[in-house]
Write a sequence for this structure.
């Protein structure tokens, strides 16, 4: 994989440490197996997943890897090579939501969610290592949840489908860790396939693998990690979510997903007449128009006209910036600098307020565009961004 500028903090190929060796060093013996689950970027469809809408993520080559063995004595031991603090030792029958445990709450929450769902999981030794940049909007948390769920499902022969693993991961994050995320991240990590983007209907989790062979088209999708995270983001997600629910309530529909794009203008008038807050009107416009942009990008991919998706990405960014108001100066700068340097289109991806953007660009121009973005960051006094190719990669799988 090409590194166009500063490599991200995590290595993008292989892993910094061998999880099997770490496992043996910590716990003794050989792990029963090794599993991997990727991070993701979302191509289009943002803040739509909690409105029962559509998203279109692809898996990254960056993965969380877990070396795992079963235990039958109720003990759960967790270790990550990526955080200080050593082994976290817990008892599965004492796991309780919102009880802290820092990073270990993500994998521990998965065992809690599995047991809550009635699966006889009696403990495990788990050694984790990940190349997914954390807190960059690339779903390092979902990678951790899904790799844990898959490993435990395999070892205890639970026979869970990829979608069921995703649902367990999301439940861990929502109910155990306490983060109110939608289902996109876990579904992407569990269900994506190499060379494809995932068209996901978050209402019923029906999905389609959409061929997305960038290299064959002479195209590159760059991920630009701004390496910033603005504190504003924490409350803003809940506020947007509440605003969307308010919009649906005023329109008398279960979810904003139920408002077709053709009815958007009339719905906005209805909302204004009903005295809806100006922000609610903007949020509704974003969600309904972004669902429409997912459809547009899919039909462009299906007809092989991937380049024409560029302006749709730009429109998506403008909507996130102006209507949903979840962008930030660094993300706007990526989009602006990339477009000025000749990109086909760009948008922020993930929750916003920092994190990452995606840039669709002719492969031959990828280096020039990446350099222009880095230079724009330097000129604005921002720290150097991490830039890498989003090669559409495989979802969660057993390695050995
Ligand atoms: P994102 O999922 O966008 O990367 P989140 O805030 O949802 O950001 O999740 C990041 C959190 O997930 C980290 O703060 C940490 O608690 C946990 N995490 C992610 N990767 C690892 C890892 N390799 N080792 C330990 N914890 C991790
Ligand atoms: Mg996350």
């Amino acid at each position: 994989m090409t590194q166009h500028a500063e490599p991200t903090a995590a290595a993008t190929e292989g892993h910094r440490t061998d999880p099997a060796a770490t496992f043996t060093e910590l716990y003794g013996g050989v792990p029963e197996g090794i599993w991997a689950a990727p991070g993701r970027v979302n191509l289009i469809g943002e803040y739509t997943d909690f409105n029962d809408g559509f998203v279109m993520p692809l898996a990254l080559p960056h993965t969380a890897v877990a070396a795992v063995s079963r235990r039958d004595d109720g003990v759960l031991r967790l270790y990550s090579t990526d955080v200080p603090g050593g082994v976290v030792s817990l008892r599965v029958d004492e796991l309780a939501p919102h009880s802290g445990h820092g990073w270990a709450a993500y994998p521990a929450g998965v065992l809690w969610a599995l047991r809550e769902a009635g699966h006889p999981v009696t403990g495990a030794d788990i050694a984790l290592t990940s190349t997914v940049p954390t807190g960059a909007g690339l779903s390092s948390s979902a990678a951790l949840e899904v790799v844990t769920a898959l490993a435990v499902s395999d070892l205890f022969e639970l026979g869970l489908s990829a979608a069921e693993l995703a649902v367990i991961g999301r439940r861990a994050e929502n109910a155990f860790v306490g983060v109110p995320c939608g289902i996109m991240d876990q579904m992407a990590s569990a269900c994506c396939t190499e060379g494809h983007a995932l068209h996901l209907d978050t209402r019923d989790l029906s999905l389609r693998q959409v061929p997305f062979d960038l290299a064959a088209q002479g195209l590159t999708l760059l991920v630009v990690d701004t390496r910033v995270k603005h504190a504003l983001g924490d409350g803003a997600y809940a506020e947007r979510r509440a605003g969307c629910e308010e919009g649906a309530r005023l329109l008398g529909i279960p979810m904003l997903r139920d408002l077709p794009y053709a009815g958007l203008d009339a719905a906005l008038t209805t909302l204004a007449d009903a005295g809806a807050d100006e922000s609610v009107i903007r949020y509704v416009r974003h969600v309904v128009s972004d669902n429409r942009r997912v459809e547009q990008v899919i039909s462009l991919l299906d007809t092989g006209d991937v380049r024409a998706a560029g302006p749709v990405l730009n429109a998506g960014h403008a909507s996130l910036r102006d209507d949903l108001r979840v962008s930030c100066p660094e993300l706007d700068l990526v989009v602006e600098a990339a477009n000025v340097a000749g990109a086909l289109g760009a948008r922020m991806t993930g929750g916003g307020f920092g994190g990452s953007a995606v840039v669709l660009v002719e492969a031959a121009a990828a280096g020039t565009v990446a350099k222009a973005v880095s230079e724009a960051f330097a000129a604005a006094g921002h720290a150097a961004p991490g830039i890498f190719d989003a090669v559409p990669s495989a979802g969660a799988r057993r390695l050995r």
